[in-house]
Amino acid sequence: MHYIADVNLAFDSLRMIMREVPFGWLLRYFHLNGASLFFLAVYLHMGKNIFYGSYLAPRYKIWLSGLIVYILLVATAFFGYVLPWGQMSYWGATVISGLISTIPIFGQFLLTIIWGGENITTITLRRFYTLHFLFPFIILIVMFIHLIFLHEEGSNNPMGFNSQDNIILHIFYSIKDLLVIYCFFALFLFFIFYLPTFLGNPVNALIADVNFTPKKMVPEWYFLPMYTILRSINSRGGGVLLLAGFFMLLFSLPFLTNPMIKSGDLKLFFNYIFQIIITVFIILGWAGSKSLDDFWIFASRLFTSLFFIAFLAFLPLTEVLNSFIVYYRVDYYLKKEAFNLFFNLGKDFLSLHSFDLSYLTRQKKDYLKLILNNCDIIDEYKDATSLTDKDDAMWNAWYFGESKYNLIYAEDEFNFLLDKLFPTDSEKYYK
Description:
With about 425 residues, this protein is mainly α. About 65% of the residues lie in helices and about 0% in strands.
């Protein structure tokens, strides 16, 4: 390759690649904008998993392995950010890698090992270049582990069903994946040919000068939320602890709550909490691109606090509220002559509480026979393909509001099913 990992030649070699190597400019813009769009896809993927509860048991291993991939991606992007040896490259490496010195006892020694001396030199640049080359192979290994866990537990779904009613990949999902790939590739090409440096920092177009510190330190956009959290405290040690708390919060997310309802679509108030989290995360990124004046220092501290409060307080309270509704309020609403509502809600109502009742996805008349037969809801529902004439007449009477048959007729059967669906003791009939 034409790049030279040397503090005296790195910047000039990159300029030579852009101007003299055939299609070198295209290769660099592919690499530069590809990293940004890759992180965009990662953040969208993480947000979707949080919304639909894919990080919860039994899929917590998928979430944890995915977070390891994310951390490796952040490290790889940081090593690559240093290689152009522009102003932001040098000072970003100085500030971020210098945080290692805050580790008690052996922090300074570890920083000297990483730098290869007391300052960032050619040795440091060569080590970062080597790590930037090797880390993608480590990411590939962890990604395969991530896919193995996904294959074992199966994918989540927006309704929160635990059953593995699998659908073949082609053509049901492959056509959707191709559409998403096409949209991302169109956006990718738009940035490459029309806005190739839009996502970068213009200060990094200047060669690194160890004697001149930029007035405003702004990393790449995908680092900005973490950068805001890091500088929200006027202490290097405190900022490092807070940033470590950010990653620890993500790793502990599957163990903070054990909700009955997994999907955010079916949780009361969860949509609002999730929108708050996304808004706060975007504002953290915006604050990270601003100067350290009084207003943005206050905003950084405020929204950093809101980010942690949303995960540590708002989300658990939402789960408690939804559990309270399921255990104590559903029985009240259903028993007030809402038996017809139970049939109308059907599978959506049952999936609302994440019960393993995926076999209850047939016609509404099947629910009537389920109640009349008093069958065990945990076992497979058998012989639900037809109803007797009497059952059919009772269904029509209840469904269309006729007075010949009353809801009280099935009160005992209905209460029997309620006791199984919503037990009053600690035993739970859901996964």
